[in-house]
Design brief:
- By secondary structure, this protein is an alpha+beta fold.
- The chain has one domain: Alpha-Beta Plaits.
- It has six helices and ten strands.
């Protein structure tokens, strides 16, 4: 089994939006639409603090298609335009898409949208055009904080590679299993992983 995914070290993410810009540029994403969003979580009171500055904390959370293990968007697609590849990624065959938006409505993360000009649904492809040639997604290669890493979940997070072939396991600060999070799982099995240390995880969207 293979399940390609992105792991993001949220303690390293500075919210520069380079991943969003790089994604839009390489995939020609239309103005007003995003395949990769960066949300600011907080500021929230630090546990035991006053709740007033400087006793607050926040972090940035990157959200895109989660390339789920059991994607509901694939299950509801009447034409099989949405499908899962052998590498675990979820893709859309535009020549089969009829723009019904069943997949948009079924996605628990709100990361699909209808391209009004082409009348087909679009979303993050994990830069299939790059990964098929052995490269990392553009959002990973352009991450200014070296916070994003790409790899196969079945091989373990420590094997994920970032820009410049940095390996997550030997590059970032130590973490344990309690520091690894994912977006809410409603039976779909989201694949993206988020590493967050010394902050309260608030990843419910």
């Amino acid at each position: 089994m293979t399940q390609m995914a992105i792991a993001t070290d949220l303690n390293r993410c500075v919210g520069c939006l380079a991943c969003s810009v790089a994604c839009k540029a390489i995939n020609s994403v239309a103005i007003g639409s995003y395949w990769n969003k960066v949300l600011r979580i907080g500021p929230n009171p630090i546990e035991g603090g006053s709740g007033d500055f400087p006793d607050v904390e926040y972090y940035f959370l990157t959200v895109q298609c989660q390339h789920c293990k059991n994607p509901e968007c694939v299950a509801v697609c009447p034409t099989q335009a949405s499908h899962k590849l052998e590498d675990g990624t979820v893709q859309i065959a535009k020549d089969k898409c009829i723009g019904c938006q069943f997949c948009v409505m079924s996605c628990p993360y709100g990361v699909r949208y209808l391209n009004q000009e082409e009348k087909v649904v679009e979303k993050c492809t994990l830069c299939e055009q790059r990964t098929a040639e052995g490269d990392v997604p553009q959002c990973v290669s352009q991450c200014g904080g070296n916070a994003r890493f790409f790899g196969d979940l079945d091989q373990g997070l420590d094997s994920f590679k970032g820009a410049g072939d940095y390996v997550l396991g030997s590059f970032i600060e130590p973490y344990d299993s309690s520091d690894v999070h994912m977006l809410p799982d409603v039976g779909n099995g989201p694949s993206m992983r988020y590493i967050l240390r010394k902050h309260k995880w608030q990843g419910s969207l």
